[in-house]
Amino acid sequence: MNTVKFSFKGRSETVTAPESITASALLALARESLQIDDEIVLKLIFKGKTIASSAAADDDEGSKRAFPEGVKMPKGGAKVIVMGTMTSGIATLNSMRSDPLMRGFDEEKLSVSCGYKSGVTSTFWGPKLGSQHPKYKFCRLEECKDASFGTRPTSSTPHAFEARRLMEQLATDPGVVQVLTSRELVVGCLGEMDPIDDRLMQKKKQEGACLLGYNTNHGLAIHIKLRTDDLSGFRPYNELASTLIHELSHNWVSEHDVLFWTNYGQMRVEYLWKHACLILGGLFVNGKRTASLALIMDMIIFPSDGKDSPSKSKLMDNICQSVINELSGEMAQHHLPVQLVAPAVIGFGKDLMLETQDESIGFGHGQRLGTSSDDENSGLSVRERALAAAEKRAREAKEEK
Question: What is the rounded distance in angstroms from the CA atom of residue 222 to the CA atom of residue 148?
Answer without folding.
Answer: 18
